[in-house]
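Record type: ASSEMBLY
Status: queued
Input:
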Amino acid sequence: MERRTIRERIAEAAGRFERLEVAIFTSFNLNADFFEQNVLPALFGAEESEPRSAREQRVHKALARTKVGVFYDPSQLRPSLAAYRYAAYPVFMERRLFHPKNVILYGKDAEGRAWIYFAALSANLTLSGWGRNCEGLADTWIHAQTEQAAIAVHEFVQWLGQRSRAGKDGVIGAALNFFGGLQGRRHWTDPEGADPATRRSVRIYFSPQHASLWSFLRAQYGRIDGVWAASPYWGDCSRIADELEGLPLTLVASRGPNDFRRSGLGEDVLAQLRERVTLADEIWTWPIEQDRFFHVKLYEVQTPRGDVTGLGSCNFTARGQFWEPSDAGDPGGNVESMLFALGSSDWPCEELPHREIPSTSCDEAPLPLPAYVHVQYNWKDGTYSWQLEGRCEVELRLPDGGPPVRLSATLRSGKRAGELRSRLFRFRVGDHTFYGTIAELSLEQSAYAYGSRLSHADILESWHAGVVAEPLPRGRKANSGDVEGDDEDVSELPDVESSVPSFDWFMFFRGLAAVRGALQADSRPDQPLDLLVARSDSVVALATSVLESRLPTAARWIVTSECLRLLGPWQRDVPAVRGHVRKLRTVADQLHKALAAELSALEEVRRRGADAIAIVEWYAGRLGTNQ
Amino acid sequence: MFLLSLEDKSLSLALNGRDPLGTQAIWQFRARDVVPALTAASGRAEGFQLLVTALAWFPLFAQRHQRPATDLKRYFLLVEQAFARAWKTAGEEDWPLPGKRRLSGNERGIWVGLDPKRHFLIDSPLANGTWGIYRGPLLNARVVDTTNLLADSGVEETIRRATPVMKNLFDGLAKALREPPGVQIELAQRSSHSLVQGLVEVLKRLPSKALLRSKLVAPAHHPITRDLAEQALRHPDDPVEALVLRALHELSHWRVPLNGVVRCERYLAALDASFEQLCALVIAGEKDPYGALTMDLVALRRAQADFAVCGSFRGLADQRRLQLLQAPTASAAALGAFLLQHHAAISEERGSAPWISESDNRRLACRVEVHEPQERQLQPGTAWRNGYYLDALRSLARGVGTGGR
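Status: finished
Output:
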């Protein structure tokens, strides 16, 4: 079996898209900081040698044009430090876990053909998953609506939209629309040059679409004659033993993760299986690789059509393999996913010494949350909405500074307007406090200023130079000389590009003309999005920088108004502009009033009995800001 | 495709290199005692050669084609593309400077343009490419002045004489600067073209080797740098710690600055490791994470005393040094509480959320994934994590030599 890093493989696949439109990730654990610092840069082609600020800026920019969504189990979230424009949706299933690990990419290749890249992994979106553990990845390219893989992915994405309450918003809507653009038949070589015949036997399993892993395999490949199974966790195998009754079964157990002198497979499970299946005499394990935990879940199934290999998230447990409940008290299994294809490969296994088999197995069984509140923030109308799942009484605290909300079986949902000040909310069930992240809807209309910002002087210098190369912020507090992380030591350099203390109006108006010219040149379809919103020196970035500065009210009002004049006409063609226009209009109105107030307070104005409001209106008319 | 994953060590580095205690400013200041000009990423002689060659020719180019001084950066972006595409067209191995990913397609020939998506080698090339990485060290070494031109006209003339191929670029570059950014200018097609051969030859022959050596690897006013570069080349597999310790033994006349580095590093590395251990203990659900820190406090006390006399500092480095000298060594609990509070202050200063903080019920919660450091990293006698730019020095010395005696 081939050995690569997960990052290398995902970066390679993503690099095959000329235009990456949608990226969906699913994971049980989500370490959002890890995802932002490692996975997103790999997705968007950042080179390892790039400094952190450059990687971040590249990601911010790419996120303005590629919709990215991450679906995860809310019991396992570690929120991030920085805000990026991607959607994170918790998927709560009462008494079940959301456990699939997938990467699904939608886009067009260099010839303009639509492709979906699908990967099933055993790795979560964490440092352990992508970095330290030994994990598995199986992937395929999907091109035709009629393929089983295409249909399975499409239905799963619909299911994700419903379960996460994202509906058809953002990433889900874009993915569903994309499916409609796939062609009917499979006949192209994939973007990596593989013949369509190599994809013919590929089948994708999503547990909510089937009663069990085994019923899926029988439906797709026919009778099962024998099974090899590798799993890090084992437990509760009576249902599996019933399902595989009489069949030859060979097991590959992992050592660790806590004690590498013991396997996760114990005598309890072996005894349970021996009663019903023909268990191979030898138990196998993976070779020792510097205490790396083999978290891979790998199956090889003998069928009349040949050996079928499968890889993904299904542990060798009833919860991992059966979706349907066994009886009324059983909540059913986890949400899981696997990719299967005809063929077998060498598993680098060795015999597990008997002394390493403990009496009881290691069954990873983290507890699902007792209840969950789906909280969403819709950028379109600036409202929070919430929906309780579960049968508890819950006190919800939103980050808008408003009063707590009490939820119960009779009052499960609600809505209120407010500002999104943080993406974290809290809810209390009994004596326990839990945290959740707010899912953002209509994210393309978000008015949030993402990423570290340039000074307005840097932006004007860039505009003045023709907006050719995009400057980067040097650190979070560039003036302190303190750079975070692996950025270069620039603290002692004479800074030839440092900001000037005042606002250069000549540069500003010339720069505006340069940006207008670049917008009219229309050399690339993404040009307006880049210049207006996405780049570090965009029009929105200038407005934000000026509004955060200590420039006089009049200066901030004029700059805001001019930026609005540039942004306004693009609202229809560039949805990302809309939220900013709304926000800037509000700010411009406030500045307008503040300016009138400042004028009326002037001794000279008062003495002459002049009408300050009329003066400001007169100037506004002359500047064209009333348009 | 089915695959089993290999360990991805650079992922771990990315998360671990984020300076939660603000020690970077301190070690970087101390590093200037041994490597005065280089930065961590500026280890390729080709990068310096490309930049000084482009800068040496710009005044003449601007004069001949009547281009304003403000065209310098755009001119450089075009020159950089020409060199990179010549390298690719000539069938050389991977492009050694930033941008190799976009050169991996099938297109051959030299073409240049100013459209960021279609022509640039990399996003944000001025910050992130050869200009951004190699200009800083040249400024530090006073090879380039603050107007971004070569500081010495004699040097400029010498470089021009050694790189006449650059003149052949002029017309194409001028055209690219005149046209709208979307226009692509073709300069050469085949690998046998003299422009392709000439540009590649500049990077392979490195005609400014002597200049780079004298300014960056073996500066006359800073002889320790040359001695360390020679030491690094003699022991190419030595990691930075071994290199410094060996030099301390073999280059005893540099005992004072090298001791400064060791004393600085042992203390900082141990504190950073201890903070990571605190995070790892919190993640693991340890009830008393402060008490579970395994720092040898007697050794830490000694390291702190050594750190106090590891040399003078200024500005932010000095401010941070004074803060870290306050770390209590009486108990693990006190040390843990100090690290947490210091990290909170650093985070606040930077306007970012802390990695670790107290939640409502006064329990600690960690927001990033951190693995427990190895025991060796946790002890002040053996801890080491920072590079002091010695890797870049070794790498550059490999390219330009040390002028060894």
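Annotation: The first helix of chain A runs from residue 6 to 15.
Annotation: Chain A has a mean pLDDT of 88.
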